[in-house]
Specification:
about 15% strand, Rossmann fold, about 350 residues, Beta Polymerase, domain 2, five-stranded antiparallel beta sheet, six-stranded parallel beta sheet, 14 helices, globular
């Protein structure tokens, strides 16, 4: 277990345009590339709405870890990591602590958010599938996820709808208060799209259209929401008929081949990287909300403080058990960038 580390950036200190650049490369391609070029012995890549992180095992220590990773990456990506503002590094037991807090939802824009535990689990599974994991990452993630599940249960996280999707739905309601609305086009069918759709059901009677690259998943979500399915080939045409377009897609910017018109009243982009920036250029009079704007609207509410304290107590207990098998560790510190 010696040599485990995490480097990353999050919404607290790193602008969204930098985070989306760091998240833009396909994991299945560059995880083997990093290992082959001796950036690290094991690699897990985590990208969410709030953060982009690399967990791994290395023989190096301190800033040398970051330097080795950057040198083993494709040139543009390595340069972006070296120049990014707000890069942090955790080693040893501090790495475990950070992972457990992330998976619990204590470091999320929306404290206790529902999606994060599944996102961490999926990140580990994807890296394992790509050949990036070994005994160290297996032990780290199994222990961290086990602690996070226990902490979330004790804190009561997951009983309500604490999610970026819900926060986005509430922000939309506030922005469009008093305005007459036509259909809302929801692009995507994953966890964030689903949480947005269910939150919207409780806030508005606005008609919802669902479009996704996966017709099966779009039909499933539309059925659950009482919404209408728009085939993926027709999403551009539907934009012109919608008063709100919400994207919860992954994969980067959607190309726009249609002509400009009045456009929707609101473009709400929940993607990392963002997906609606081409539409923003085509429809400059549409109001624009992305994750940075949502972050400005989010605050830790007083009633959340007790739940946070309970979660932290559980994590401390699990951390002590994890540390019994370790021979020390270095606390996390900031790696400043350009």
């Amino acid at each position: 277990m010696e040599g485990i580390f995490c480097i990353g950036v999050d919404h607290h200190a790193t602008p969204l345009n930098v985070r989306e650049l760091l998240a833009s490369s396909a994991v299945e391609r560059w995880i083997p590339h990093l290992i082959e070029h001796e950036g690290a012995a094991e690699i897990v890549f985590l990208s969410t709405c709030n953060r982009v992180e690399i967990y791994g095992r290395s023989e190096k220590r301190g800033p040398s870890i970051v330097a080795d990773l950057a040198q083993s990456m494709p040139e543009e990506l390595g340069k972006a990591w070296q120049e990014a503002r707000g890069v942090y590094l955790h080693e040893g037991i501090s790495c475990w602590r950070h992972l457990a807090e992330v998976a619990t939802g204590l470091r999320s824009m929306v404290v206790g958010e529902n999606e994060i535990l599944g996102q961490v689990r999926q990140a580990y599974a994807a890296s394992r599938e790509a050949g990036g994991t070994g005994k160290a990452m297996h032990a780290l993630f199994q222990s961290g996820l086990r602690a996070a599940r226990a902490a979330r249960a004790e804190a009561g996280f997951g009983k309500g709808d604490a999610s970026v999707g819900k926060l986005a739905a509430e922000a939309m309601q506030e922005i469009l208060a008093g305005k007459e609305r036509g259909p809302l086009l929801l692009l995507g069918s994953g966890l964030t799209a689903r949480s947005f759709g269910f939150a919207l059901q409780n806030l508005s009677q606005q008609p919802i259209w669902v479009s996704s690259r996966s017709m099966g998943r779009a039909m499933s979500l539309a059925s659950d929401l009482g919404a209408q399915v728009v085939p993926w080939a027709e999403w551009e045409r539907s934009v012109k008929l919608s008063s709100v377009v919400v994207s919860a897609l992954a994969g980067g910017e959607l190309s726009w081949g249609g002509s400009s018109a009045k456009g929707p009243d609101l473009l709400l982009d929940l993607g990392v990287p963002r997906t609606l920036t081409a539409l923003q250029r085509v429809f400059p009079h549409s109001m624009w909300v992305d994750l940075e704007e949502l972050a400005r609207r989010s605050e830790v509410k007083p009633e959340s403080l007790l739940a946070i304290h309970r979660a932290e107590e559980i994590l401390r207990t699990h951390e002590a058990h994890f540390a019994l098998g370790r021979t020390g560790g270095v606390e996390g510190y900031q790696v400043t960038g350009g």
